[in-house]
Predict the 3D structure of the following.
Amino acid sequence: MADPVILAPDKGAYIRTNAWLAAVAMAGAMAVLWLIGNPYVWTGAPAGLAAIGIRAWYLASEELVSNWQLSDTALTGPGGRSVPLNQITAVNIMGSFVQVVTKSGDKHLIKYQSDPAATKAAIERAMG
């Protein structure tokens, strides 16, 4: 691998992930209102949707520019994170995220990948 591979977040994956999160939040809010005996259980749905929608809108500018670079020797991420490839013990897929686990137990998320399986395969190939 001569040039580093850029592992960039995908806007479609970001939207899909937050849509699933909104659905869970909507159901959860409705369940809580039902459990406490609120007669307006339906209000949990718009509340959950609004909460996740606002969160997604607010974080998009930060999350959608968090690129990782994969080179022959390391995985380098936002905030100065650097993981030597020989220190990686596991690469896991969690929805649209790829989790990298190191020998010391550190865990890093490469978020909102359009094809998490391809990202995992690229990291494992680079590891040798």
Notes: The chain has a mean pLDDT of 96.
